[in-house]
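Q: Please design a sequence for this.
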């Protein structure tokens, strides 16, 4: 995103506007309410205790102070700055998440001052954070509503797909719903801003996008991270390698320890032990238990005598074991017998 270039430093603009207030107490209340000194906002109650007045009285002082700084004569001197903010917002689709708007400022200490300027500027409207959207600013509530509809439609499309998508696929989804809602498609940079207004769509460490409650996007602990690691690898892994895959993905700064991962793999029914320390996903068709039990399961499924090669192939589809181990288990005369034509069946 292009950096925001302001003709007047935000600190100078707020200093000028506050100097026009009729009392020092008004200036002090606004400075504390917006965190203009030190960056930390104070509540009405906290300010009231400092001045030994009621919070309602503080609210009245704040309201009068804001009324004064919103007068045309107070805004006239900072008009170039306000116009720069408007142009910046227009260039990015008319609605911007607060955090992204502030991220375009070089000086983080200026953020409270920009928030103040946006608040007192008569052209700007703040839309509060909710379950689906971040806190954002706009000059056109209709544009903001259109953005919400487009992103809501995109969320529904992801729900229907029920799978993570690439960045390009997601951008195509947003563009499609923009064409339906607006009759056209804005620049990719604007679509990226729209995406950043959503609290529901998130990016995982693999560069894929999905819904924030999905395990592939926001895994619940080590067990979900292990599941994702195996899905992404596509074949069984030793529990130490599962831990390594989790750490390589970089879900968080907290490293996954092999023994912790092993414990989770043992407890979760999604995983199957298929060899010494080797785990696979049950959904791949692997079965838990001793080789003899898997053999019994195969014979019952097939419901007919089987040749040795077919037995070996079927076992290897479900367990990672050596062929001699399979043949050794077939010698269990209490479970299996050999037919006259050399095939094997259950006793």
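A: Design:
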């Amino acid at each position: 995103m292009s950096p925001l270039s302001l003709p007047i430093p935000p600190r100078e603009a707020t200093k000028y506007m506050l100097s026009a207030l009729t009392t020092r107490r008004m200036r002090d209340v606004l400075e504390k309410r917006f965190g203009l000194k030190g960056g930390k906002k104070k509540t009405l109650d906290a300010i009231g205790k400092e001045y030994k007045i009621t919070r309602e009285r503080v609210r009245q002082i704040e309201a009068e102070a804001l009324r004064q700084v919103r007068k045309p004569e107070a805004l006239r001197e900072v008009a170039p700055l306000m116009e720069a903010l408007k142009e910046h917002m227009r260039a990015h689709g008319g609605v911007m998440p607060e955090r992204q708007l502030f991220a375009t400022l070089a000086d983080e200490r200026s953020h409270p001052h920009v928030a103040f300027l946006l608040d007192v500027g008569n052209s700007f409207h703040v839309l509060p954070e909710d379950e689906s959207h971040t806190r954002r600013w706009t000059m056109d509530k209709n544009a903001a509503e259109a953005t919400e509809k487009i992103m809501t439609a995109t969320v529904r499309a992801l729900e229907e797909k029920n799978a993570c998508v690439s960045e390009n696929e997601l951008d195509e989804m947003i563009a499609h719903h923009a064409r339906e809602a607006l009759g056209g498609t804005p620049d990719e940079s604007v679509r990226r801003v729209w995406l950043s207004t959503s609290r529901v769509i998130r990016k995982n460490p693999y560069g894929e996008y999905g819904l924030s409650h999905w395990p592939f996007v926001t895994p619940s602990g080590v067990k979900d991270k292990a599941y994702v690691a195996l899905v992404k690898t596509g074949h069984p892994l030793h529990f130490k390698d599962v831990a390594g895959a989790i750490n390589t993905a970089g879900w968080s700064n907290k490293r996954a320890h092999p023994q912790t991962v092993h414990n989770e793999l043992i407890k979760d029914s999604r995983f199957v032990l298929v060899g010494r320390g080797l785990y696979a996903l049950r959904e791949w068709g692997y079965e838990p238990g001793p080789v003899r039990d898997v053999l019994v399961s195969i014979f019952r499924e097939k419901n007919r005598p089987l040749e040795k090669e077919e037995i070996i192939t079927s076992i290897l589809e479900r367990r990672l074991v050596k062929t001699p181990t399979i043949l050794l288990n077939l010698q269990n005369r209490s479970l299996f017998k050999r037919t006259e034509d050399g095939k094997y069946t259950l006793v």
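Q: Thanks. Anything notable?
A: The two ends are 72 Å apart (CA to CA). Residues 18 and 28 are 9 Å apart (CA to CA).
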